[in-house]
Amino acid sequence: MSDQKRNFIGGAWVAGDAAANINPSDLTDIVGHYARADAAQAQDAIAAAKAAFPAWSRSGLMERHAILRRASDEILARKEELGRLLSREEGKTLAEGIGETARAAQIFDFFAGEALRLTGETVASVRPGVGVEVTREAVGVVGIITPWNFPIAIPAWKLAPALCYGNTVVFKPADLVPGSAWALVDILQRAGLPDGVLNLVMGHGSVVGQAIAESRDVDALTFTGSVSTGATLAMESAKLMRKSQMEMGGKNPFVVLADADLDVAVDCVAQGAFYSTGQRCTASSRIIVEDAIHDQFVAALSERISALTVGDALDAETQIGPVVDETQLAQNEEYIRIGEAEGARLVIGGERLARPTEGFFQRPALFADCTNDMRIAREEIFGPVATVIRVADYDAALDVANDTDFGLSAGIATTSLKHATDFKRNAEAGMVMVNLPTAGVDFHVPFGGRKASSFGPREQGRYAAEFYTTVKTAYTSA
After folding, report:
1. Which of 114, 247, 290, 459 is catalytic?
2. Based on the domain organization, do 119 and 243 belong to the same domain?
3. Is residue 260 part of a domain?
4. 247 is catalytic
5. What contacts 365, CB < 8 A, 6 or more positions away?
6. Which residue range(s) make up the domain with 463?
7. Based on the domain organization, do 204 and 352 belong to the same domain?
8. To which H or E segment does residue 180 belong?
9. How far apart are CA 341 and CA 376, in angstroms?
10. Is position 217 within any domain?
11. Active-site residue among 164, 268, 281, 370?
12. N or C: which end of the chain has fewer CB within 10 A?
């Protein structure tokens, strides 16, 4: 196929079986045709990365800085074009797509600076006449497997530190969203990366992802996606005694206390639970509300939901775009049925919506009268579905918030310094938000969770060095 967007292996664009990339807002709109790699091509990519590692890991800091900076500049200059591509293939609103693209540019800019800030330590030895140096070096070939919900930001926050610290990469994006990944790799290779340093292999996880996971030539593996896949990849990495980093699911609590500003609480939940169509691992899916404000809060949030505009992601009036595909939409609908069967009260939403174009549109859903042992309160739905759980007081709210297998993000709406301080200390989550949505993080500070949400070192900011480098201690006798 002449218009096929190809895989990138060893510095060359390589063809494969083509698959259509379809816009979930308009199923007649084909974003493009993208090659799917086979297992042999994945092995070729790994071999190319391995061959390129010795030279790239010893490359000059200014070379790495300049390449990452050029990539950042181009991404930012093209943010509207790339944001539109992202929104067409994934379904988040155009404003969100442009914002995510700008975030990717900021991430590359940050790690361009980090390339010039590589540091170590010189320390005194306990033995006279001996010097000690502690330095960080690149790990080697890094396998990167990314999800469909943030098609450019998550690849950016893995690719940028991997390249910054001198690693070579084999990159497999989610099969649903190859377009943003292809554009990002095209930008990076034109920014000056030597052949083999960055390799793109698009396609099925069962083929390409498995080849990366099983290869002994992959020295570190970083993944964002489902808990089940992350657990499998972590075990595969353990067999090979290699570094692994898994960012997985969330069932994030947002506590609303009686002293909260109601408008702030509703805004935090509406944004955290339903924006990006609820397709975020940091989404507020369990809303834990103190009894004294419960009914008022549910009524206000229901009113807010009813006013949300669901439609084509590229329409400027749209606030909630489509669900990413039919499989995800059917799963969302199944959880609506499960919730009602469990005895939860569906306050609003959950139904498919007809729009001028054929797409996967669903009204955001809110359940009340929920208990924390219901499946809809324990399992990650990954859609615009939130549950409200009534509690007596702050202590009960904290207990319910922590009663989960996950521990990514947790939020609270309160005007009490005492309760805000206690929640920050005692919420069992990697990230805590006070009077802010659970979704929405800065790029220069650590990202990650606890329990089943994360495994391995944190992502983003300077903490990324913990995964993408290895520590060496050198002794010298005078």
Report:
1. 247
2. yes
3. yes
4. yes
5. 332, 336, 346, 348, 349, 350, 384, 385, 386
6. 7-248+453-477
7. no
8. helix 178-190
9. 11
10. yes
11. 281
12. C
Same-domain pairing of 24 and 166: yes
> Which CATH number is 201's domain given?
3.40.605.10
Quickly tell me which residue has 């498995």 as its tokens.
Answer: 210
- Report if residue 45 sits inside a domain: yes
Number of domains observed in the structure of the chain: 2
* Partner residues linked to 259 by β-bridges: none
* CA–CA gap between residue 146 and residue 224 (Å, rounded): 5
Separation in Å, CA 475 to CA 47, 134, 138? 33, 9, 20
Asked if residue 91 lies in contact with residue 25, where contact means CB atoms within 8 angstroms, the answer is yes
User: What are the angstrom distances between the C-alpha of 311 and each of 1, 177, 314, 354?
Assistant: 32, 19, 9, 9
Residue 315 has pLDDT above 80, yes or no: yes
Per-residue pLDDT tens over the stretch 26-52: 999 999 999 999 999 999 999 999 999
370 is catalytic: no
Cα distance between residue 243 and residue 389, in whole Å: 39
**Whether residues 112 and 237 fall in one domain:** yes
How many angstroms separate the Cα of 473 from the Cα of each of 122, 123, 141, 241, 329?
10, 10, 21, 21, 52
Band of the pLDDT at 478, cuts 50, 70, 90?
Answer: confident
> Whole-angstrom Cα distance, residue 471 to residue 465?
10
Read off the pTM: 0.97
Q: Is 166 left (phi over 0), alpha (psi -120 to 50) or beta?
A: left
DSSP strand pairing (130-138 vs 469-477): antiparallel
In a domain, 446, yes or no: no
Say how far apart CA 334 and CA 81 lie, in whole Å. 36
Task: State which H helix or E strand residue 221 sits in.
Answer: strand 220-224
427 φ, ψ (degrees, to nearest 5):
-70, 130
> Are 88 and 23 contacting, i.e. CB atoms less than 8 angstroms apart?
yes
pLDDT digits (tens, 9 = 90+) for 357-382: 999 999 999 999 999 999 999 999 99
| 347, 371: one domain | yes
E strand or H helix at 366: strand 365-370
Q: What is the mean pLDDT of the chain?
A: 97
